[in-house]
Amino acid sequence: MNPAIVGTQDTDYKVTLQKRRQWVSVANPFSSFAICFETKNIFLNTPVGIQFINDIAGDANFTTSQLNFAINKSLAINQYKKFSMGVFLGYAQREVDYSDLVFEETEQLQNSSFIFFDVGLGGNYSVTINNNFSVIMGLGAYHINSPKQSLLKDDDIRLNQKYNYYLRSFFQLNHSLIISPSLLYSEQGKSNEFIF
Q: Is the model's pTM score more than 0.90?
């Protein structure tokens, strides 16, 4: 969720549900669930969003549960151009269930979970060229605090910062048809992805 676009929907409220199961052919497929609620003007005429994410993966049921809060502020440059900036704050827990794991030798595993706080920022710029054409572009910076990610309390293991850059345009061909080509580039650590 880019906090800069929270509450930009046409309606007063927006609810998004997502459920995904990945690699169902393996013994314990990856399972992801997310729910997001956004509103335009619930607090001091400011858009606010809340998001809950839950991921479960593998034989050890490696679980990530995260609750994020987002808020943004928009500035209308003129009637055709708008800029918004937002921030999100998250609270997360990661845990492992060792009960179904088998080790050759007895392991002294002391910690099965840890918590961390997460911080992200976003920016968005939108421009309406005419009644039939508009463009939005922006970026999101996630995990900017590089939270610790170790069951062994190793301070050197941290969550890499993630950056998303996007560009989307809207061409309204007639009253019932809009074409919306989009570009998204993401990078985190040594990984990157380009979607169009």
A: no
